[in-house]
Amino acid sequence: MLDLTRRSLIVGAASTGLAPTLLTSGLARAQGTPKRGGTLTTILTPEPPILVLGVNNQGPTTLAAGKLFQGLLEYSFKLEPMPLLAKSWSLSDDKKTYTFKLQDNVKFHDGHPLTADDVIFSITKFHTELSPRARPIFSKIKEATAPDPHTVILTLETPFDPFLLMFDVSACAIVAKHIYDGTEYRSNPANQHPIGTGPFQFVEWQRGNFVRMKRFDDYWMPGEPHLDEIIYRIIPDSQSRALALETGQVQLTQSNDIEPFDVPRFRAMPNLETELQGWEYASQISWIEVNHRVKPLDDVRVRQAISHALDRNFILSKLWFGIGKVATGPIASTTRFYDPHVAKLQAYDPNKAKELLDAAGLKPNAKGVRFTIKQLALPYGEVWTRLAEYFRTALGHVGIEVVLETNDAGAWAKRIGDWDYETSTNFLSQFGDPTLGVERSYISSNIKKITFTNTGGYNNPKVDHLFTTARESGDPAVRAEAFSEVQAILCEEVPQIWLMELAWPTIHDRKLHNVIRSAMGPNAAFGQVYFE
Amino acid sequence: MAPARLARLLAQRVVKIVAVVLAIAVTNFLLIHAAPGDPASVIAGESGAADPQLMAQLRAQFGLDQPLTTQLALYLNHVLHGDLGTSFRQGRPVAELILERLPATLLLTLTAFLFAIVTGITLGAMAAQRVGRIADSVITVLALGFYATPLFWVGLMLVLLFSVWLNWLPSFGMNTIAAGYTGWVAIADIGQHLILPALTLGLFYMAIYARLTRASMLEVASQDFVRTARAKGVPEGRILRRHVLRNALLPVVTFAGIQAGQLIGGSILVETVFAWPGIGRLAFDALLARDYQVLLGVFLCTSVLVVLFNLLTDLLYVMIDPRVQTP
Questions:
Q1: What sign has the CA pseudo-torsion B242, B247, B248, B253?
Q2: Among B164, B165, B163, B148, residue whose Cα is nearest residue B195
Q3: B124, B140 in Cβ contact below 8 A?
Q4: How does the average pLDDT of chain B come out, rounded?
Q5: B interface test, pick of A183, A207, A436, A438 with most B CB neighbours within 10 Å
Q6: pTM for the complete prediction?
């Protein structure tokens, strides 16, 4: 049954590329008649530095700028592409040429019409220069042409199966060529007053206070948006955010606005609704980051022992209060090519952990300590500190002494990038396809002194080969086979010790409708969102 | 004091101030660069994706690819020309960012400052006058309580009481956005938002002033000249005001001088809890993001303010107590 689902998902995703799709999924359209008007007040935290995607790609930037800018596509909860600025698309038989038909009547907020030139500029110049995510993929484009102002044809050097997953707003927001072409993108004055095609246009940003955007009257989708204004309040303290939601001063929270330990309280409030969908595209997985250069962490038995020593169900229920899922391997279950048959991690079993450590020759000393390692706690909020504390306790039970180190975000990123750690905690987005978001952490060619590469230094030629096969094959069946094999190997070798598939609760007033409609979750453009 | 002497005093002090501020700027610069991590690694860390090209682009854009000494020389040169630089992250002039946030912080801290001084000295004087009686005990216990309780906790409790239970006051922010308020309504709106954060910040300092005033007055009250005044038949109220309080104020002025120096940067916690868009948070966010220019700018402004208020405090000493010699 599960296998069927997986396969049909692969076939489904492949066929969407072949046929022009008008799949505006009836499933996502909500019931009820939308009403015009109203101001949505919500939260933005931490405050982003700039609201132009590409120039800055942080989570909060995507959240707010996702209302101002749009991509060609968005994705359903099952990661099928859905039309946005592109009303249809097709893929040639040799799987190299993608043709996008753009929506008619799309205007930028400054009145300029959107044309194929803007799209080609955004893809081949703007994001290719700015974004580390887009660069390796868009540089595969051999030729980009616009036979007419509403058609974009992209020809790749070789087939690239996950290509269509690169067109949401976070990966490739469409910007105006007439504003950015020929300028220094990062210091363009227009970055202070973003101009996009989204349903909302930028009004005002008082730093440290709020970002305000209003309805764009010339928005291309008739009848949308329904809201008059959206106001993002900057509220740095998590308890103050919880109070703002509780008192109704904000009507929507998302991402990590609310600490996990506060979520059960809000789930119980009758006037609020908590949604856990909407993170399928990001599908973040958290793990204990292991530096393979530090002995004895290079020994697979030691990593397996650590994996056995951790009770992931405890982490899920006691630290994340049931939000998210226990990880079963390197690939999130919501991502394409996840294989439930091979993705099985070491079960919680401290005795097994001790046996493995004994076998590795790490016997306890007089104090019961086998060896000591450091854990650099992730400085992204209270729950990660608690996770590091749990890690210390759990490993203590099997005779591994853990010394906690703390740091702020800047120092953390620097030390991970410099390989200057023994163990830490990390989480990374998967972007719907293992080639896009998983491969980077495990292939040896990506062992670099930069955060979010293969910083742990794991090196397995077999794994390299399988990831390369999956990357280079245009055939989903070949890719599926390679990914299944790679999942089996990685689960056995646990190069990183995966913990959880993260989900973030979106909590909103029940009078607010159509909030979570796609795998983009609260990052979506909100044209359909309305107050009852 | 003769005007000529005052002028000479001021001139001397200004030269010292410039030297001190420059020394502070250099120290700040070196200290900040000693912290691990740089703006490029922070941005990479926050974006969840990075490659060598991005890091190189960012470092070149921020000028971080230059040797540290070159960066320092450039920075000092800019500062001497009155240019505080440009924020790495926000791409806007630092002076503009600081000026934008300054009114909010000054409104909050000055309100809290005045509230703390007036109520603190009044309560301290009342306690000293009624030493050992119920009123004294109540004031002392209250002052000790506010002094010992963490600011953010007081803030959250006030929010719980006034925003959540009573629903009288807003729990965060500085104004109601997009409500279209003008004139007195807008001022009243800001006033409403100001009450809780100003009270939270003010209660802590109030406690300090109350304790200082009480202790200092009790010490002065036992001195000979007070007994003499009383023997002369000076009315009790006049003794309290002219003889005791005035002499007891010196430590209070000293402390007020220190607090005034912190008017810009000293309210980070309260600004965070109440989402008050002030300088303290600007500095804190800049610190976390390693936005060196912004952080240096705020530090520079703060240090200038501290030395200025030190000067002012010295002058105030002379006015309150003629026995104090001008240096």
A1: positive
A2: B163
A3: no
A4: 84
A5: A207
A6: 0.86
pLDDT bucket at B256, cuts 50 / 70 / 90: confident
| pLDDT one-digit tens code per residue, A270-295 | 999 999 999 999 899 999 999 999 98
Q: What percent of chain A clears pLDDT 90, i.e. is strictly above it?
A: 81
Residue in A239, A409, A416 closest to B156 by CB: A239
Collapsing DSSP to helix, strand or coil, B173 comes out as coil
Chain B 275-304, residues with CB within 8 Å of chain A CB atoms? 275, 277-278, 281-282, 285, 287-290
B12, B19 contact by CB (below 8 A): no
CB contact under 8 A, B49 and A132: yes
The predicted-structure confidence for B15-59, as pLDDT tens digits, reads as follows: 888 888 889 889 988 988 888 778 888 877 777 677 888 888 888
Q: Can you tell me which residue has the tokens 């890690």?
A: A391
Both tokens of residue B279? 């300088």
| C-alpha triplet A10, A13, A17: angle, nearest 5° | 135
A63 with A4: CB under 8 angstroms? no
Q: Which of B48, B57, B167 sits opposite A429 (nearest CB)?
A: B48
Q: What is the ipTM of this complex?
A: 0.80
Residue B158's nearest CA partner among B190, B119, B198 is B198
Residue B97: DSSP 8-state: H
Angle at alpha carbon of residue A187, lines to A428 and B83, rounded to 5°: 115
Retrieve residue B59's tokens: 């470092």
Query: Which of A173-182, A373-382, B31-40, B287-296 is modeled with the greatest confidence?
Result: A173-182
Cβ proximity of A49 and B40 under 8 Å:
no
The whole-angstrom separation of Cα B24 and Cα B299 is 9
Residue, of A26 and B176, whose pLDDT is higher = B176
> Does residue B172 sit at the A interface (CB-CB below 8 Å)?
yes
Q: In the sheet that A325-326 helps form, which strands lie side by side, from edge to edge?
A: A325-326, A497-501, A285-290, A423-428, A371-376, A400-405
Q: With CB atoms and an 8 Å threshold, state whether B159 touches A132.
A: no
**At A81, is the secondary structure helix, strand, or coil?**
strand
